Amino acid sequence: MKDRFFSLADRLTRETHTDEALLLWLSGERSDFVRFNHGRVRQAGSVAQQFLTLRLVRNRCQAAATITLAGDGEDEALARTTVTRLRDTLVDFADDPWLAIAEHPESTTHERRGSFPSAEEMVNQVITASDGRDLVGLYAGGSISRGFANSFGQRNWHAVDCFNLDWSLHLHSDKAVKCDHAGFDWDPATFEAKQAEALRNLALLEAAPRTIEPGEYRAYLAPSALDELAGLLGWGGFSARARATRQGPLLRMEHGESLSPKVTLVENTADGIAPSFQRDGYLKPASVTLVESGRLGAALVSPRSAKEYGLETNAANGRESPESLDMAGGALGTHDVLAELDTGLYIGNLWYTNFSDRPAGRITGMTRFATFWVERGRIVAPVNVMRFDDTLYRMLGANLVELTAEREFVPDPGTYGERSTSSARLPGMLVSAMRFTL
Question: 3-state class of 259 per DSSP?
Fold first, then answer.
């Protein structure tokens, strides 16, 4: 795929006019997908696809189009025709005042090969481990590729093998345990350990559920639950544009407010799935410290924001949101979570999270699967769905007791159109008080 892309790029860029710049972005994958229901395969298939986005720039004007590549001799003719149409279209376009593209070539190649079983082997492991339970989930695994080329001679390539098995064990109605096994190398022992823990929690769900009155409770949030909060943080929390326009959820941190010193957040591109380059041709640093020991760090600055606000870009995406978020762990061992929680809520997942007061960093959401009431370090009953409403400054600040030393790799399971390359590496989190409203 790489050789074909670079060869096509060479032919197209040689034909670029002297007053033009051509930028090419390739997004491809070869993936296996398996959907499970009732512990059996309900749908299975493989996808091989490549999308090429062609972007033509002349003076301060730009136009772009995306085509699907078939991997045959017709690709070049289609790409040439597309460039011609873009050239004709540019005459009707106004100048883009914040246009910014990389004009000094920096070529890179990164390939990370993983190790995981064939889809058939994986299916056999999952079905055997389900042991007749109602297992529902989706497996997606294979190679993801991204490529960039421009008429200045820059060539970048990124390919990574990775997988994600996202599944739930259902008991009845809303009583279920949600799990995830993801990464670059499939480890049967890790999968079996997660499934064994899920089966133990499923058995606990058979007890009569308890309804908790509104109020504040000591709580432990598993990495999957913390991922929901991290997703909201990434919704403008680290964006240079959001800071400049006063629209982010961490505005108070720009004026002296801080989180717990235990909180350090880094955009860790070097260890994620996402490529180290972006669509404008700029290269990302290996890491960007977003929050350091509770204090607000650097912003994610896209090339357009850099142009508009007079900043230096760090090659953030257009949304200026993290793609490889990494949260430092703490001192709490996972095996000690229940004992340290003592009495309170063990929260496996959150859903329907959103801002209830964005400028104040206030968020709301619901508990979901595998939420338990714990007394004296022992799970005593599942808890019916509850709504929380609290602030990031309390949960990640004054009320943060400790983070787990162990962290989990949590990729974005999105497959709409193509597999997502976003991911996070997160610990679990123990808080002294979490506010529930109903």
Answer: coil
User: β-pairing, 362-367 with 423-436?
Assistant: unpaired
H or E element, residue 61: strand 61-68
Query: pLDDT tens digits, the chain, 438 residues: what are they?
Result: 899 999 999 999 999 999 999 999 999 999 999 999 999 999 999 999 999 999 999 989 999 999 999 988 899 999 999 999 999 999 889 999 999 999 999 999 999 999 888 888 989 999 999 888 899 999 999 999 999 999 999 999 999 999 999 999 998 877 889 999 999 999 999 999 999 999 999 999 999 999 999 999 999 999 999 999 999 999 999 999 999 999 999 999 998 899 999 999 999 999 999 999 999 999 999 999 999 999 999 999 999 999 999 999 999 999 999 999 999 999 999 999 999 999 999 999 999 999 999 999 999 999 988 899 999 999 999 999 999 999 999 999 999 999 999 999 999 999 989 999 999 999 999 999 999 998
Helix (H, G, I), strand (E, B) or coil at 33: strand
> Which amino acid is located at 156 in the chain?
N
Bridge-partner residues for 345, per DSSP?
219, 373
- The angle that helices 2-14 and 74-89 make with each other, rounded to 10 degrees, is 40
User: Which one-letter DSSP state was computed for residue 311?
Assistant: -
Long-range contacts, stretch 179-187, CB < 8 angstroms, 24+ apart: 180/224, 180/408, 180/410, 180/413, 182/409, 182/410, 182/411, 183/114, 183/409, 184/112, 184/114, 184/115, 184/160, 185/114, 185/115, 185/116, 186/114, 186/115, 186/116, 186/117, 186/122
8-state DSSP, 58: E
Question: How far apart are alpha carbons 10 and 22 in whole angstroms?
Answer: 11
DSSP state of 316: -
Q: What is the 3-state secondary structure (H, E, C) of 412-432?
A: CCCCCCCCCCCEEEEEEEEEE
Closest CA to 239 of 321, 308, 324: 321
Maximum Cα–Cα distance across the chain:
74
DSSP state of 323: S
CA distances from 223 to 96, 132, 347, 429, 436 (A): 42, 27, 10, 7, 20
Cα 122 versus chain centre, distance = 23
DSSP-based helix, strand, coil % in the chain, nearest 5: 25, 40, 35
| Phi, psi (rounded to 5 degrees) for 368 | -135, -120
Two structure tokens written together for 231: 């997703």
Q: Is residue 51 within 8 Å of 67, Cβ to Cβ?
A: yes
